[in-house]
Amino acid sequence: xxxxxxxxxxxxxxxxxxxxxxxxxxxxxxxxxxxxEKGKYDLVASSFLLDENNNKKDExxxxxxKDYIDSNMCELVQESEHPKLKDLAKEIxxxxxxxxxxxxxASAIESxxxxxxxxxxxxxxxxxxxxxxxxxxxxxxxxx
Length: 144
Prior knowledge:
Elements: E1 2-5, H1 7-11, H2 20-37, E2 42-46, H3 47-54, H4 59-72, E3 73-77, H5 85-93, H6 99-110, E4 115-117, H7 121-124, E5 132-134, H8 136-143
Parallel strand pairs: 1-2, 1-4, 2-3, 4-5
């Protein structure tokens, strides 16, 4: 099974853990990462994800996320290798999704991921039959 974790998912453990929702999403995101490390899921990343992570101000967080992705991804989606990616991202963007989020989602769809995992409520509301968009808690609940 192929999955794509977006940037907000990777950042969730570094958010203030004051809300129960954030605590649960953090816990389940870490469980997903553990399962990736054990080979249960194939992790897909994109050049958009790497660029977005590279723009983080906190060097420690940036480095930790980059190291995880570099060590565990099975596929890197790059715009130059996927000619339909730009058009698909524009189509997604036309539904109200922010440009960078649309690029992430398009990357996951183009690489034929089964799941796009995010904690972003706007993306979670997006409807498509091309990929299942889900948060970490829902994903772990379905996969138990």
